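I'll show a sample.
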Amino acid sequence: MTSAPDSRRTRPEGFPQTGPAPELVESGFAIENADASFLHRGLNLADLAHVLDLARRAIVPPDAERALLALLLEVTGIPAEDFPYDPEFGEPYNSRERFFVARIGDVAGWLHAGRPRREAARVALRLHLRRQLTELVTEAVATALDTVARAEEHAGTLLPDQTYLQQAQPSTFGHYLLSFVYSTVRDARRLLDELDVLNQSPGGAGCVNGTRLLEDRDPIAAVLGFDGVIPHTRDAMWQVDGLIHILATVASLLSNFSKLAEDLEIFSSSEFDFVDLADAYSRSSILMPQKRNPYALSIVRGASGVVIGRLTGFLAVTKSPSARSDNLIFAYGEVPRALDLSLRITRLMGGVVRTLRVNPERMRQELDRGYTQATDLAEHLVQLVDVDYRTAYVVVGNTVREAARLGIPGGGITGEMVDAAALAHTGRSWGLAGTDLSAVLDPRAIVASRQAEGGAAPAALERMTTTLRAQLRDLAAQAEQRAAGFEEAELALVAAARAVVDGGARR
């Protein structure tokens, strides 16, 4: 007779019976506690909302409600750096629980009713990030407006614009600067779109499929100033795509600033001398007394790389099975730090642009000794001689090559020189001897001809700056309105909690 197989579980069940290993404290819990400052305020607000909602549903007794709210209001007034967060006790939520139990005993356990600790942290992260996003949009708008103002100032400052660090076509420094504003506007819009996604409440989601203690998740969302609830409870607790999008957008924003910073570093070199950073954004060499290093630009470029690294690192962390804590353990610090760094770099870039010294004479010198008129000359020949563009391109290219050999700048090219190149390439003269090409070769006239939308002509640039100013004002107003709404909701929540406590004290 055979015995039945043993169905008992060999794996231990239930919570751990010993404290954490020192290695775990020094690594995992220390990392989480280092991020407590980002969550502190939001955890307090999330707890206040949770207690008030428990009371609304007559789950928590009135005396316990008042005791909890009084303690939470007290903690709300304690700065994060003064609160006893300690990795020896686990993650930040565990330190809070220990503090609450020490003050009011098991009454603190009502905070866990229908809500895991991770839910509180998820709410807290969103409350912190939404303020950062509105602030970053505001600063991005300010930097863009500084750039628009400098573009308007230099709408007539001629510049040999470049591609591949080679002179391309005559343009203006104002037109060049304005190209960086459009990317900033797009990223600011993306941040506001991501704010719409972020400002949805995970409250009441439980760990995976909600809780029997909560029939309606909307009240918690409303008192915290969320626009609504994340509809799927499992998704509410474990989603990370919105955080990835935020990191991607701030990486894009700083990448745009980094491009400008790299250009300005080249333009500020002795070899170019197109611009110069103000002393306040420069740094001296401790060894070489003649040097003024564009230190601020190095910070911008390096910070762009750091944020790209944070995006890449977070993507690597989130490439895992679903419902894993590591996806968000690192998000609590990485995303706020990326936003904080982006905010500081955005302000820095605004200061650099606002105080930048521009050298129009050097720009014009380089323009006059180069051949940026070549494209316009080829297009002119297409119309004048009735030849295809490829033929005109080759003839002008050969003309430029010969002019460079003879030391003749682009503005000195003559009809005779073009005729000689045409004869060599096509076997016939184009009859350009004695033709006045000065208007075609004049950089200022070339810029003035760019009247179409987006062109470098002063009137076209003015149309762009007028439109951009309106768009930037709208973005700033949206960010200000959202920030004011968040502030109003959070202050009202604290006031509601205080009214309960004060009402109980009077009774």
